[in-house]
């Protein structure tokens, strides 16, 4: 059987500290390494479209979770699970690139509505197909049954850690739009 870098780390801990159970590293070390590799691959793709990963997340959230007229800045923050400051920075960049607008709600001038521009909609429509193709490429080593089993196992872990959807409209994860 082929070994990965985590196998070596666990073996080193077993030699250096045989009194410790380093078995959690088998799972969490691999999750961490997979995350770094996948994020690097995602960013390489998004860069081809002139986007950062967080900008893609905002555009994707506006499409999949937003109403046709846009979302309030607060809704966008909640759906993207990022801080208001992080969302503000992303919105500033996306407004400057002409992909979103940020306007006061005429019904409540204290509320900001964020909406895709036609250029932003065209961009996300192109990027999402490429992103999903790239995601399939990254999972090619796992057959569909293995992918399903892994997704179910990770769902169980996430729920146990408190990452639960509040309702059907409150689901999001960065870079997974």
UniProtKB/TrEMBL annotation:
- Which UniProt key words apply to this protein? DNA-binding, Transcription, Transcription regulation
Keyword Isomerase: yes or no? no
What SUPFAM superfamilies is this protein classified in?
Winged helix' DNA-binding domain
Q: Which InterPro entries match?
A: HTH_MarR-typ, MarR/SlyA-like, Tscrpt_reg_MarR-type_CS, WH-like_DNA-bd_sf, WH_DNA-bd_sf
Record carries keyword Transcription: yes
Name all HTH marR-type domain ranges.
24-159
Q: What is this protein called?
A: MarR family winged helix-turn-helix transcriptional regulator
């Amino acid at each position: 059987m082929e070994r990965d870098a985590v196998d070596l780390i666990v073996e080193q801990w077993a030699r250096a500290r045989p009194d410790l159970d380093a078995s959690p590293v088998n799972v969490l070390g691999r999750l961490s390494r997979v995350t770094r590799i996948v994020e690097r691959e995602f960013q390489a793709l998004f860069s081809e479209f002139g986007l950062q990963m967080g900008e893609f997340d905002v555009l994707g959230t506006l499409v999949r979770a937003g109403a046709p007229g846009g979302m309030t800045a607060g809704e966008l923050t909640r759906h993207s699970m990022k801080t208001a400051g992080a969302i503000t920075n992303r919105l500033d960049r996306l407004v400057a690139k002409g992909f979103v607008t940020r306007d006061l709600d005429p019904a409540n001038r204290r509320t900001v509505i964020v909406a895709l521009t036609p250029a932003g909609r065209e961009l996300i429509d192109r990027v999402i197909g490429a992103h999903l193709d790239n995601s399939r490429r990254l999972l090619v080593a796992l057959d569909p049954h293995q992918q399903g089993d892994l997704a179910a196992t990770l769902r169980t872990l996430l729920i146990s850690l408190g990452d639960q959807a509040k309702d059907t409209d409150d689901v999001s994860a960065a870079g997974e739009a």
